[in-house]
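Still learning. Show one?

>
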Amino acid sequence: MDIALLLTLAGLALVDSTSYGTFVIPLVLIVVQRRVQVRPLSWYFLTVVGFYFLIGVLLTLGLDVFIDVLTDIRTSPAGTVIQLLIGGGLLLLSFRVGGKNATKRTPESLIPSSVSRRAMIGLGITAAILEVATMVPHLSAIGLLVTSNVAPGLQITV
């Protein structure tokens, strides 16, 4: 592994660390709670890092072939009909959720009232899942590693 690849990976890691899952959500938690609670934030970060690591390992080991198959299914006529049905169902559901009896949501109400381990792990999983579509630097780093002449064990380690 050469120094240029390591520097590129470090730069991508730095850019990726500014995402809402790794920067914005913890910052909001600190500001709203008006203090740093190390243990809950540690559970949150461990969850996000673990999720990122799992996605990286799966992509390194060839999950992209499975994703290509899912993409082919999604773009088929049957896949289009399924997407239309799901979208219609979500549209109908949107009229039921948040109706007349819905309470007003403030930004503070979106923060978990409990900073228990379970709540922080749930928040971490939710943030990581929502962030998959925007993890371009992470995916770029995996692509660089997979196309380089680096042994698979070292790829996963990096």
The chain has eight helices and no strands.
